[in-house]
Amino acid sequence: MKIFKDKQTLQKEISKTNGISFVPTMGGLHKGHISLIKQSKRFKLKTLVSIFVNPKQFNKERDFRNYPRNPKNDLKILKKLKINYLYIPKYKDIYGFKPKQKVFLDKFSKRLCGRYRKGHFEGVLNVVNRFIEIIKPKYIFLGKKDYQQLYLIKKHIERRKIKTKIIECKTIREINGVACSSRNLNLNKNQMKIASNIYYYLYNIKKKIKKNYNLFNINKIKKDLIDLGANKIDYLENYNIKNFKKLKKASKKFNLFFAYHIKNTRLIDNI
Ligand code: PAF
Predict the structure, then answer these.
(1) Known catalytic residue: 120?
(2) Does the CB atom of residue 127 touch ligand 1 within 6 A?
(3) Residue 49: CB within 6 Å of ligand 1?
(4) pLDDT digits 0-9 by tens, 12-58
(5) Using an 8 Å Cβ cutoff, are 83 and 43 in contact?
(6) Which residues, including other chains, have CB under 8 Å from residue 15's CB and lie 6 or more apart?
(7) Predicted local confidence at residue 75, as pLDDT
């Protein structure tokens, strides 16, 4: 595994390859990232992983400061996976140039997390657009846990006619059902149990409302989540995942999207 801390040496190296499979991360690596990397390796190009905690996608300074960082463990995982390249840029490497492409922000960015984290998706698309210009990857691997992010990145790529292809990867869960996330590192045992109970509760709700949409009683569900130990619910919404139209009745392909807080940790998922 070759490690790069500046883009000039990275670009020199990757110009010799016949294409890059790219897994962007903010570190705090877990089973979800491992699964993305394993998928990337199946594509038989060189796999490049980046670790960059992007300050521009945090709407709160405290959230940025508390974001889990575990560089030693990250390095151990990546070495074991035998990735080809690791890119750990400094802020200036990413933000010290003017990108050729303007970010396209689809209107869906105003929904779900966009309503609760002002500027978040602008920040995500800004950094992803810059990574694409630096690396020019053939593929980018993204997880469906962050479905809204994945959708918005796809829309940007489509609108700007960028040649990179997004590979959608399934959500990886802990044995207790909770979606793998770097933020889980901030949960203690009891909080993890709460997250697990919430997952199973909502999993069953989804099964029920698939049969009878009238059972989707949002106020009752929110109250139950608080009783289960959540401190605050940001949203609980059903969307048709093909076109991201909000659901009024059960359809074949819909997901229940939710975001909630356990103490200071904000968790998102979709089922
Ligand atoms: O999903 C993430 O970890 C981040 O949003 C990403 C895509 C690496 C951009 O900073």
Answers:
(1) no
(2) yes
(3) no
(4) 999 999 999 999 999 999 999 999 999 999 998 999 999 999 999 99
(5) no
(6) none
(7) 98
- 193-207: b (≥16 Cβ within 10 Å) or e: ebbbbbbeebeebbe
In order of their start, the domains of the chain are 2-169 (3.40.50.620), 182-270 (3.30.1300.10)
CA dihedral 106, 110, 112, 113 (to 10 degrees): 90
List 33, 120, 156, 261, catalytic entry: 33
Q: Is the CB of 265 under 6 A from ligand 1?
A: no
CA of 227 to the centre of ligand 1 (A): 32
| CA distances in angstroms from 72 to 78, 80, 204, 215, listed in the order given | 10, 13, 38, 47
Give the residue, by CA position, lying nearest to ligand 1 atom 5.
124
Does residue 146's CB lie within 6 angstroms of at least one atom of ligand 1?
Answer: yes
193 phi-psi bin (left φ>0, alpha ψ -120 to 50, beta other): alpha
Report CA torsion sign: 224, 270, 266, 183.
positive
Q: Are strands 2-4 and 85-87 parallel, antiparallel or unpaired?
A: parallel
Q: How far is the CA of 136 from the centre of ligand 1 (A)?
A: 17
Nearest CA to ligand 1 atom 2: 25
pLDDT single digits (tens) 98-113: 999 999 999 999 999 9
**Quick one: which of 33, 32, 37 has its CA closest to 47?**
37
Neighbours of 3 (CB within 10 A): 12
What average pLDDT is seen over the chain?
96
